[in-house]
């Protein structure tokens, strides 16, 4: 086994361990954890199967095999970034709806308080703020 294969496998193992560690601490989503573990497995697989890169490049019609690997890695990263941007857009919409609902509830509560008759047993405002009164 070549030294570069060992380095690739060690990197993939360290990356997979980091992903699992962050998933254990609930810092990543389950969907993202699976995708990143798939990336680590792909790195390890291509590190061990060196002729796989050549086979992949010839199947894609690319003469220089590392270019095919670079193309695939870049495509995978673009896919991950696209998924993350979709998730950010969805969360932004949820945040906007939540802010609108809070504004409506606050407005309704202010209107309800304005329409309510004053309570006869209410404590004067000055006494409410003074903890030593009463």
UniProtKB/TrEMBL annotation:
Coiled-coil segments on the chain, per record: 81-108
Region of interest: Disordered: 109-134
UniProt-listed Pfam families: DUF2304 (PF10066)
Sequence intervals crossing the membrane: 32-49, 61-82
InterPro entries: DUF2304 (IPR019277)
Keywords per UniProt: Coiled coil, Membrane, Transmembrane, Transmembrane helix
Record carries keyword Transmembrane helix: yes
Protein name according to UniProt: DUF2304 domain-containing protein
Source organism of this protein record: Corallococcus soli
